[in-house]
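Query structure, 401 tokens:
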């Protein structure tokens, strides 16, 4: 594997690890800074998560469009050095305002995944973009597994240790990129930077003019909201339905992350070769309908542990959709497309937790008409059904498939 590809995959993995590294210590860190109790820390944690997602939403298209104008290399390197500085700020923060500043910077620099994916599109042969996007997804899955495990271990050394580790990882990766990363944006595909296309709404309007792309964006959004049921309510669901402790919940999420990496890093190539990008999306959506239905009604913790990694077999939808859309937009607009997708994902990150936790609370609170912790999975099932109907509906314009 070429060194630039290794760097791109490391960038995505470190992005995912950086988020996971700090999750185990955030409650203690916030209580340390504010002096409040756990409930107050949870409220502040929600604010920090929302700020992070909003920044991703606003700056995803900006970073993507900057990479179309000035190149992938400078945007990636500047973002990684800024990410390292962000973790240093959070490591020394003594006030909530500094932590909020850290999450603002973190949300902006997290948009590097759009540029990393655009770089992968630049170096991919025609027809192989979807499977290479699968490698990006696999790297994210590995980071999702490794990050929380490392964060929990480093947290034994204090609430600040994971931030210093994340800063060191980002800085080392930036140094590697400075040495090995070449530029893929040539004068032939370089395009001017335009603010009207660099804001989320402008990017969506511009890209939706391409035949069928608006429909694919909608399918992507519905899938992202449905998928975020896992990080939004899994810990609460595991405790309410099976009586799991934190260790069992971490183990189940680790199993899911490992299988997701296997699917997106390897199995997706076999599925794409057999079904093609369009057929792969259909397979993934149908599989998720059954997976969400099973998780909604399962009552055995052992069966749930078996179902959890199997549920990741549907994780082919995102790279397959990215491949379809990447073929539509052409080489000149890869950064713009990936930036817009980053913003769509950020909106899903804002919407899904509020939606899923509200449904969970409604069906598990005292006096609820029926005790049904699996209700959020039925919401996700419904969203996937809508996405499948929309994807299969007759289309007016031609879509590359």
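Result returned for the query:
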């Amino acid at each position: 594997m070429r060194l630039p590809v290794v760097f791109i995959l490391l960038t995505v993995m470190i992005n995912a690890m950086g988020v996971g590294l700090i999750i185990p210590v955030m409650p203690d860190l916030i209580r340390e800074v504010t002096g409040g109790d756990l409930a107050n820390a949870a409220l502040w944690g929600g604010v920090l998560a929302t700020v992070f997602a909003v920044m991703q939403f606003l700056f995803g298209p900006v970073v993507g469009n900057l990479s179309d104008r000035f190149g992938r290399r400078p945007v990636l390197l500047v973002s990684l050095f800024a990410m390292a500085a962000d973790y240093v700020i959070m490591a020394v923060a003594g006030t909530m305002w500094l932590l909020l500043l850290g999450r603002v910077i973190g949300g902006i620099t997290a948009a590097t995944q759009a540029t990393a994916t655009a770089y992968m599109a630049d170096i991919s042969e025609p027809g192989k973009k979807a499977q290479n996007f699968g490698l990006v997804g696999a790297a994210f899955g590995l980071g999702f597994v490794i990050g929380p495990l490392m964060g929990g271990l480093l947290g034994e050394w204090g609430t600040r240790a994971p931030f210093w580790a994340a800063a060191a990882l980002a800085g080392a990766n930036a140094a590697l990129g400075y040495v090995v990363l070449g530029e893929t944006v040539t004068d032939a595909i370089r395009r001017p930077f335009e603010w009207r296309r660099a804001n989320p709404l402008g990017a969506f309007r511009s890209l939706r003019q391409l035949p069928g792309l608006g429909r694919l964006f909608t399918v992507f959004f519905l899938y992202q909201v449905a998928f975020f049921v896992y990080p939004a309510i899994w810990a609460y669901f595991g405790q309410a339905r099976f009586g799991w402790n934190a260790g069992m919940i971490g183990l189940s999420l680790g199993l899911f992350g490992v299988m997701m990496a296997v699917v997106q890093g390897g199995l997706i190539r076999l599925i794409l070769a057999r079904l093609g990008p369009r057929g792969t999306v259909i397979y993934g959506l149908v599989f998720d309908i059954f997976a969400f239905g099973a998780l909604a009604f399962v009552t055995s913790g052992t069966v749930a542990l078996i179902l959890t990694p199997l549920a990741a077999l549907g994780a082919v939808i995102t790279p397959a959709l990215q491949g379809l859309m990447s073929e539509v937009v052409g080489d000149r607009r890869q950064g713009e497309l990936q930036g817009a997708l980053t913003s769509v994902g950020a909106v899903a990150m804002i919407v899904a937790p509020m939606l899923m936790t509200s449904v969970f609370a409604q069906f598990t609170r005292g006096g609820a008409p029926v005790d049904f912790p699996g209700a959020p999975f039925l919401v996700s099932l419904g969203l996937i059904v809508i996405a499948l109907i929309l994807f299969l509906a007759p289309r007016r314009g031609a879509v590359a498939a």
